[in-house]
Design a protein that fits this description.
Length: about 130
Amino acid sequence: MAARRTAQAKPRPARKRPGLPRTTVVLRWCIVGVALFVAFLYYQPLSSYLQTRSALNERTAEVEQLRNERARLQKRLADSETVTALAREARRMRLVRPGERIFIVKGVAQWRRAQARAKAKATIGGDG
């Protein structure tokens, strides 16, 4: 009897899996399309925002640098108003006070070079 059942039983055709309904597929593609469209619309403002933020950071760094330079220059100006600084600047310009004698020394650079050579020879000679 068991043999009879297997002989009589016809193989069933493979069942197809039911696919998603067409409306679901279309709806999913519409959602993807809308998401891409929204991303496209946000691209330009987002790009502009990032560029503006970058420029703002650059300007902030520049302002900080200028503030530091301004503070340095103000300090230099305050120092230049002292009598000592004024006298030092007058000396650089080769000005003398009334009644002072001026001494002009020439050949300082050559003297320094000669001193450096002599020091180097003494260092080399002292090592060996």
